Amino acid sequence: MVKQKKLSIFNLKTSNLIILTFFLIILYLYFSSNVKKDHISKAYITNQGDNTVSIIDLETLNTLDTLEVGVAPLGITILQKKKLVFIGNVGSDDISVIDAVNDRLIKTIKLGTAPLSLTSNSEETEVYVTDWFKNNVLTISIEQMRVTNSLNVGITPSGIAYNKKHQYQVISNRDANTLEIYTKDHNLVKKIETGNHPFGIYTEGDFVYVANVYDDSVSIINLVDWSTYEFLVGAHPYNVRVHNKVAYVTNTVDDTITIYDLDSKKTIKTLDTGETPENLDLNIKLNLVVVTNWGSDSISIFDIQTLQLLKEIKTGAQSRSFGDFILQ
Amino acid sequence: MKKIIFTLLAILFSTLAFSHGPTPQKVQESVTIAASPEKTWEALKNYSAFEKIMKVRSFKDKLMKAKYELIKTDVPFSDYNAQIRVKKGENDNESVVQWTARFYRTYKLNPPIPEGQDDATAVAAVKEIVGPGLAGFKKSVESQ
């Protein structure tokens, strides 16, 4: 009798243990998949030719989804902490906002003018947009999801970037061959000459880097003493990114990217991309350089260490992604 | 339901009508030529008929890719850049020649866009160069 009871208790414990283990496994799977989802690095590619955004998983190098946005999407910026993607549609004069957690379009902000490029402040409370036709920089409040300020700037404002160290907005005026630098309160700090046709911008620390399309060069501007330096790249460069004192530049007419050492002032390597490579972004966590190829409707992904092509992935038509397009 | 379709169509057409902005245009056409890729590539490098319109920027032998820039000035498009690639066809004696052109309309300012300076005019004009250009090149290679 006693023996039997003991046995039944033992049996009960075993079955409980099995249930508990099973439950823990489910719990683990649930949370681990959630954690993974939260930390996945993704590239958002604006396809200007078919009004979509391709979403690429940078860990598996596969396309996750393709979302319909406004007409002729071009510019992009990503709020890394808030996980929001802002897409500028130059054909429908509005901005599509994508929630990067579940990749759904959550808002369309009407502008009534063509948004060329976008960036945000360090706190991610505001997004700044260059308005190509009316020569303005618009401020969008993230809390209100609407335009709250319009600042008149020099002609053809093209690229825009935000310098976190100095809290500056930096704008390239394509047809005036200048850069304009504003404080976060929209006061002009400096207007400085660049090469011919300045377009894509990158800024970090005390420096601004800008691609001069018609000069086949990149200008570097020191934000402290305002000295400048210029180096030659391939034909018709569009954009530039910098990491560890190495510059990565897209040469649209050569179908290449230039990799340039800023210390030794020498080109390390020139890599073949797809056709008409326009923009690029880096993912340091995964050691990737991602390039959008407008001509071949694709992206090229390189290993930043080995400088080898890892994969070319088809996107929608005329992929561009002017701006920061990787959710780190 | 009818109302919904009508609304959707209205939205579609209204966005199309106001569609503008600094958007590069693309014309991409291909032709199949009855010659090996190597032969076609050599023929392209020696072909002079394109030179009335554009001049060679570079030939990349390894990739069989030629880059061109525009020299013709009286055209209803601007900022034209093109490339012509020679690729393998379905067999060793067949090649595919693909011409990709990138350009903008001539009018770069705010709408209204003057007639003859819009995207459609620019695309039509480039198509008139690309289509007959490829056909002429095919004829030239295949008659060699």
Series of secondary-structure elements of chain B, N-terminal to C-terminal? HEHEEEEH
- Average pLDDT reading of chain A: 93
What would the CATH topology of the largest domain in chain A be? Methylamine Dehydrogenase, Chain H
What spatial order of strands do you see in the largest sheet of chain A?
7-6-5-4-28
Tell me the number of structural domains of chain A: 2
Report the portion of residues of chain B in β strands. 25-35%
The averaged pLDDT of chain B comes out at 86
Structural class of chain B: alpha+beta
**What's the SSE pattern of chain A?**
HEEEEEEEEEEEEEEEEEEEEEEEEEEEEE
Question: What does the radius of gyration of chain A come to?
Answer: 24 Å
* Number of helices in the DSSP assignment of chain B: 3
- Tell me about the largest β-sheet of chain B: 5 strands, antiparallel
Identify the CATH class of chain B.
Answer: Alpha Beta
Quick overview of this protein structure:
The complex is a heterodimer of chains A (328) and B (144). Chain A has 328 residues and is mainly beta. Helix content of chain A is 12%, strand content 53%.
Describe this structure in words.
The complex is a heterodimer of chains A (328) and B (144). Chain A is mainly beta. Helix content of chain A is 12%, strand content 53%. Chain A has 2 domains: 1-39; 40-327, Methylamine Dehydrogenase, Chain H (7 Propeller). A 5-stranded mixed sheet of chain A has the order 7-6-5-4-28, with no helix packed on it. Chain A has a 4-stranded antiparallel sheet with strand order 3-2-1-29, with no helix packed on it. The mean pLDDT of chain A is 93. With 144 residues, chain B is of the alpha+beta class. Chain B has a single domain, classed as 2-Layer Sandwich (Alpha-D-Glucose-1,6-Bisphosphate, Chain A, domain 4), CATH 3.30.530. Chain B is 34% helix and 30% strand. Chain B contains 3 helices and 5 strands; from the N terminus they run αβαββββα. Chain B has helices spanning 2-17, 37-45, 119-142; strands spanning 25-33, 54-60, 65-70, 78-88, 95-104. Chain B has a 5-stranded antiparallel sheet with strand order 1-5-4-3-2. The radius of gyration of chain B is 19 Å and the shape is elongated. The N and C termini of chain B lie far apart (61 Å). Chain A binds chain B through residues 48-49, 70-72, 74, 90-93, 114, 116, 132-134, 235-236, 252-255, 272, 275-276, 294-295, 318, and chain B through 15-16, 18-24, 26, 57-58, 63, 65, 67, 69, 81, 83, 100, 102, 109-110.
